[in-house]
Specification:
Elements (H helix, E strand, L loop, with lengths): L4 H5 L4 E7 L8 E8 L6 H4 L10 H16 L3 E8 L1 H7 L1 H14 L7 E5 L10 E5 L7 H24 L5 H4 L5 H10 L10 H9 L1
Parallel strand pairs: 1-4, 4-5
Antiparallel strand pairs: 1-2, 2-3
Helix pairs in contact: 3-6, 4-5
Length: 208
């Protein structure tokens, strides 16, 4: 379970960063950034923060609401950044993810001194000192909170996309290459939000 150990090892304003949506074939990659200004958050929030992928959708949504409430009360700052499918195709998914992370920090309305980033890859020219943390969303409250922000934000975007394009199961598969997504591509082709540099989409286009 996460705690504040990593945050407390750092001086200055510490920001947790995580992303959602590197693997899917469609949609934006989204990064969340969270600075916890007051560690006296509600026990309901702290006791349940964890890697967003280990939580049910209902619990993620509840924690997202608690995080937004804490933000309103001045206990933390939240930023969200995105990179589009076109940027993913142009720069590759790793660089697009780094772009989303930088945008999340820029949108946070506070300048961090240190960024705790989930994973083991360090973005260049980042607006803070970077410390990468493997499986950070299970170790750091800030990263865990950022993972929930990014995941819920992206899932909501995919639900909106599903209303526009109801043949791919985006509301259930979040853009991953599931059976219903593949069937949708076979019947209706690809849409502008598909990542054309990803192998399954590239292969489909090459057959046309």
């Amino acid at each position: 379970m996460p705690d504040f150990c990593l945050e407390n090892q750092c001086r200055g304003v510490v920001c947790g960063i995580d992303e959602a949506g590197r693997g899917p074939w469609v949609g934006n990659v989204v990064a969340g950034a969270v600075v916890i200004l007051d560690q006296n958050l509600s026990p309901e929030l702290l006791d349940n923060l964890n890697d967003s992928k280990k939580l049910s959708k209902k619990k993620r949504e509840h924690l997202y609401a608690l995080l937004r409430e804490a933000e309103k009360n001045g206990l933390l700052k939240i930023g969200v950044g995105e990179a589009t499918p076109q940027e993913i195709d142009k720069y590759n998914i790793l660089q697009a993810t780094f772009m989303a992370m930088k945008r999340a920090v820029e949108n946070m309305k506070i300048t961090p001194t240190v960024a705790l980033i989930d994973g083991n890859r360090t973005p260049k020219d980042f607006p803070a000192v970077v410390r990468t943390v493997v499986k950070g969303d299970a170790k750091s409250y800030s990263i865990s909170a950022a993972s929930i922000i990014a995941k819920v934000w992206r899932d909501r975007e995919m639900e909106e996309l599903a209303q526009q394009y109801p043949y791919y199961g985006f509301e259930k598969n979040a853009g991953y290459g599931t059976k219903d997504h593949i069937e949708g591509i076979k019947k209706y082709g690809i849409i502008s939000a598909h990542r054309k540099s990803y192998r399954p989409i590239k292969e489909y286009l090459s057959q046309k």
